[in-house]
Predict the structure.
Amino acid sequence: MSTARIVVNFNCAQLTNLISDKAAQLAATGGRNISRRIVHVRTHNLQNNILADKINGLYAWYVSEVYAAMTEYGGTIYPVKYKFLHWKDENGKDIYAKKVVIPPNPYIRPAAQEVANNYSKYVAQAAVAAMAIAKRNKRK
C-alpha cells in the first residue's frame, strides 16, 4: 500500500493577511446586515443608507444619513427659526410643538455587539476562503 504526500507551499504572512482582511470584510458586511435588520423602518431611507466599505484600508459599516445619530442615541429637537415646530401627521392634521423628544432606537451598537460575539465565525469563513484562493493560485 502506498501513501500520497501533498505538499502545499504558502507564505504564512500573506495567508494571515488574507484571512484577516477577509474576516474584517465579512464582519463589516455582517454588521451592516444586522443593523439593517434591527433598525426601525418607516421609509427604508435609513435602512438603505447603512453601508459597508473599505475606508483608509479598514473595513467598516456606517450610516450616511444626517439623523442616524439621533435615531441611535435619541435626543430633543427644538425650533430654531420659529416658536414652534410644525408638521402634518398621517391624516394631514397640523401638529405644533415647542420640542420633540426622540427616544433612542439603537441599531448600530447592538449590531456591533453581535459582530463581536460572533467574530470567530467570520475568521473561520475567511480561513476557508483564503485556503480556496491559495489552492487556486497553486494550480496556476
The first strand starts at residue 50 and ends at 55.
